[in-house]
Amino acid sequence: MLFASLNIPGVAAGTVKKRDREAGKAIESVAKKSCNEALDEEIKLNDGKVEIRVAADAGWQTRSSGRKYNSYSGHSSLIGDKSGKIVRYDYRCRKCRLCENAKRKGIQPIDHDCRKNWDGSAKAMEPDMIVGMLKDLEKDHIHPHELVMDDDSTTISHARKESESSKLPSTESSIQQVSNMSRVEKGLGSHYSDVNDELNMSPGAYTEKAVEKMDRKRKLQKIRQSSAEYKKRRCQIRKSSSQDQGCKEVREGKTYETSVGLEKMDEEQDINSIPSATVEPERIPLRNTDSTFVYFDLETTGLGSSAEILEIGAARGQDIFQKYIKPNGTISANATCVTGLHMKNHELYYRDQKLATTDLKSALQKFSEWLSDSNSNILVSHNGLRFDFPLFIQNIMSQNIVMNTCIVGFIDTLEVFKNSDLKTQTGSFSQESLMRDAGIQSTGVSHCALTDAMDLQNLVNFHNIPFNTLLSQSVMYDYVLQHLKFSSVKNDNLKSLDVLVHGKVITEFMANKIAKSGLNMNYIKLAHTRNGEDGVKNLFQEIVNGKARVTKCKKIINSVSNYLSSQL
């Protein structure tokens, strides 16, 4: 509009934005260089000592009301005491319009210079930025021994906890708060002509055109803002923003508040964070048409996640692999009954036959070498996703063996047969039932890993299941790895919630839902300690992918909150 007021043809907003981004990169480069020069000057003025005194503060692009801090971005800087110059700066941004629009449309965002680097609340930006800058100085072997700042955040506690310097920092409330009196005036369109008159300039065609455009835009905006739909949408946005802010503040605790830095100076401040919601890994099928199917099975000491592998069996066409493994622990009676494997005089036996065994690491390494003879291997097993695949991944991780180069994914044939049009005589989809219904004779002794792998290969070939059908039920290697970690965290969380289930505060179903969201009893207690029932409510109702993290049910929230209050 500056050009328009001077009667000069304007520049398109998109062009200005593009040039602004280009200039921004250059400005950032100059700013970093300027900070380094200022730091050198600060050290020089400090008689060459790297133990410097710095002042810090932060600001936000949206002014707060004292109760509401919901700016989408914030900035912070460290100022050297001797030079009075900025030695480090940082920013946090929690919104990217291009990424959000792409997510809303369900597409990949275009390649762009995304500036979003923060998912927390606006309040928590200041401690994170200042601690980050202090750490950056530490990397350059500069040790800020004294930090001068106001008392409105928990930055000092965060700095003491996370900084590498044991001396950092002492506090001093010596920064005077300066109010930002700048204002943005709205609706200036009709005043451009007055500006021209004041400057003794006649408004030209471009100026008049710009005035008309701004007036028209303002009138349309006024009409739009007075509509019921607009007001309803504004209420929804405010409600959503308030709820999101409340959830994040409960998870982060006090990070910014008047005089919070002076509270509990002799005690440990509450700076623990409740983690954001965990989401079950997304299942994405493989699309590799050059894959090799390797039919695979395990025999183990039991059925739990702590079971040890006794036998690895695999079949790749006529090529087979089999290794027996000597366990460290005992074999359960049920496992012996099913497989015939048992220990006698510290040796592994199949019934009365002594077996040649090896240790777990050697067996897994041999299996990896055998798999390397083919490309893009997909392990195929019956009921593998529930047992064989997670146990296999768990064991190769425990032995520090890398197999994601020779295994690209997994297929569970139990899911393949259940999702097919196949009708079974007994309604069972166990491998034995499917073999019996198809009239296929086993290649050996049942519940032997190699025999089961070869039988499964024959079963799939008998039904002539198309390659693409098998591939559609596949999962990537990383999915099983991520799901194993997800399940481990969920199970740990579930154990901590037993007290709520046994006390009939919540059901087992709800406990499972809470555990899957990444919450355990300690996190729920922390939320209640910080904000009572509202803390539990904000935590449980946090919106994740359009749904509540746990539940919106008031009865459940009240029940949990009342139980925690009774334990105080």
What's the gist of this structure?
45% of the residues lie in helices and 15% in strands. It has 568 residues and is of the alpha/beta class. Helix 8 (228-252) runs antiparallel to helix 19, helix 11 (384-398) packs across helix 16 and helix 13 (431-438) crosses helix 14 (449-462).
Task: Give the integer mean of the pLDDT values.
Answer: 82
Global morphology = elongated
How far apart the termini lie comes to 62 Å
* Number of discrete helical segments: 20
- In CATH, the topology of the domain at 292-477 is named Nucleotidyltransferase, domain 5
The CATH superfamily of the domain at 292-477 is Ribonuclease H-like superfamily/Ribonuclease H
Largest sheet, spatial ordering of strands? 11-7-6-5-12-13-14
Largest sheet: 7 strands, mixed
Number of strands: 16
User: How helical, in percent, are the residues?
Assistant: 40-55%
Low-pLDDT sequence parts: 164-191
Features of the shown structure:
568 residues, alpha/beta, Nucleotidyltransferase, domain 5, seven-stranded mixed sheet, four-stranded mixed sheet, 20 helices, 15% strand, elongated
Describe this structure in words.
A seven-stranded mixed sheet has the order 11-7-6-5-12-13-14, with helices on both faces. It is of the alpha/beta class and 568 residues long. The protein is built from 20 helices and 16 strands. Among the domains are: 130 residues, Nucleotidyltransferase, domain 5 (2-Layer Sandwich), CATH 3.30.420; 186 residues, Ribonuclease H-like superfamily/Ribonuclease H (Nucleotidyltransferase, domain 5, 2-Layer Sandwich), CATH 3.30.420.10; 70 residues. The relative contact order is 0.08. Helix content is 45%, strand content 15%. Helix 8 runs antiparallel to helix 19, helix 11 crosses helix 16 and helix 13 packs across helix 14.
